[in-house]
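Single-chain item
Fold in token form
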Amino acid sequence: MAILTVGSGKTYSTIAAAIAAAQNGDTINVDAGTYTNDYASIDKDITLQGVGGRVEMVSTGPISNGKAIFVTNGNVTINNFDFSGAQVSDENGAGIKEESGNLVLNNDGFFNNQMGVLTGNIDTATLTVNNSEFAYSGVDSADGSIGHNLYAGRIQSLTVNNSYFHEDFSRP
């Protein structure tokens, strides 16, 4: 189990590069700051840790993978990250799309995304959310407004502790 580092002057300048290099059991320490259009698929068991403050994951346009800023398929823990601006053409752009595995979110934020966190329909997947905030998710589509700060499909379990959900998008 190794510790990889991301930030100015660190081993990796992007989170996606560190994720690609990581092995199961590794921790990726990410310096606080803004990381723009730094999209990644996580197909391993890792921890992402914001160091020295918040890690701001900002999407400024349509996400190339058609899903989310982070797409997870493993046992993934994410601490001290904020996700904003996620958008895709089918209006389901998420800060995080959990496709399988076990996702643990600690002290994270999801703001101004089409969807905050979106899960798949995998009976064995779990999602645990601790001390996190979700706000301002949604779109005003031609067939009505939709918005989910957190959308959990058919998964084994969803646990939410000490978290704040508010201001999802709705049209009067």
